[in-house]
Amino acid sequence: MTQEMTAKGRAEAASPPPPPAWFQVAAWLLTLGGLGISVYLTITHYDEGALVCSASSTIDCHAVTTSEYSTLLGIPMPLLGLAFFVGFAALLTPWALRSTWAPLRWGRVAGVSVGVLMVVYLVTIELVVLHKICLWCTGVHVVTVLLFLLVLADEFRRIGQVD
User: Fold this and answer.
1) Among 121, 127, 124, 119, CA closest to 144
2) If you ran DSSP here, which 8-state letter would residue 58 be given?
3) CATH number of 21-160
4) Which of 12, 17, 24, 82 qualifies as a cystine partner to 38, CB 3.0-4.6 A?
5) pLDDT band for position 163 (50/70/90)?
6) In whole angstroms, what separates CA 12 from the centre of its chain?
7) What family does the database annotate (predicted)?
């Protein structure tokens, strides 16, 4: 019994503390915001009449969301964004944040890293190729970059802690 308690005590002492409350609140708010925008953009992908956005010379959501770049391998970009935020929400569950299983942590890092790479690609398409900006898309881009910074800050907080 004593050996079991000692082993359990060592395991608890070795596990890093969960991210601070501010991280969890900010990450959840951003994820829910990104999820909401992605749901809206997914709806507008299939029903263009539902899109509410100005159409000036530079700001033109319709031109961006209906361009040939609005799909990747036949999959609508908003659907990819929706999948990203649903998957990221799973990685932010209290269980996943308390888990000492390293693949969950690295899944968060890999997920937001791929997300930021997609943001760079999509912003390049908007600015360089289309010369148009979608404000709704920009909202998703900002949320993704902020999530990346949050996850990176959490990783720096964990430096030197046991995996």
Assistant:
1) 119
2) S
3) 1.20.1440.130
4) 82
5) low
6) 30
7) Belongs to the VKOR family.
Rounded to whole angstroms, the Cα distance separating 147 from 91 reads 12
Q: Are 18 and 97 in contact (CB under 8 A)?
A: yes
Whether 109 contacts 102, CB under 8 Å: no
Give residue-wise pLDDT tens across range 4-40.
555 555 555 556 677 888 999 999 999 999 999 999 9
Asked if 134 contacts 77 with a C-beta cutoff of 8 angstroms, the reply is no
Other C-beta atoms closer than 10 Å to the C-beta of 66 total 14
pLDDT digits (tens, 9 = 90+) for 86-129: 999 999 998 898 888 889 989 999 999 999 999 999 999 999 99
Spatial separation of the C-alpha atoms in residues 156 and 150, rounded to whole Å: 10
Model confidence pLDDT, tens digit, residues 42-88: 999 999 889 898 778 889 999 999 999 999 999 999 999 999 999 99
- Which amino acid is it at 75? I
- Terminal Cα-to-Cα distance of the chain (whole angstroms): 26
Residue pair 111/84 in contact (Cβ under 8 Å)? The answer is yes
Q: Give pTM, 2 decimals.
A: 0.85
